[in-house]
Amino acid sequence: AALEAGCDSCHVAPHADPKKATLSLKTNQPGLCYSCHTAFSNQGLHPALEAVSCTECHNPHASAYAKLAKTNVTALCATCHDKEPSGRHIMAGKLSSTHPVSGAYNPLKPGTGFSCVACHNPHQSANPRLLTTPRLVGPDRCDACHLKVNAAALP
Length: 155
Prior knowledge:
The protein is built from 5 helices and no strands. It is low in regular secondary structure and about 160 residues long.
């Protein structure tokens, strides 16, 4: 993480601007973050990455959550996507009106809880709606999970 690389990996010499109470960054986000996180390209970027800074979602210094997130993934996504935590976006046009979006078993990544990132990549994807796999696109998207486990394990 950035702390292991040292403060000067992101910040200019301490208090380069004596009028600022905080350390100045070497460059603006997201460019600063991309200097280490090189996996990002311009293909299929989440629009939020262009509108807000990385630190809207991540704390670069420390966090109790995975990937230095500011809070749990579902709550973090809901700060902008306030209608999605109901699960209705998953079940549009299906018999049921809701689908769990957190806490349930995640058949795509056994051993992890279900959250927004079970289906979506929060940073970028070549698939529509930042989906993690093309199998989640189209009318058979339910099969990506529901055919992977036996009927007793998943509704």
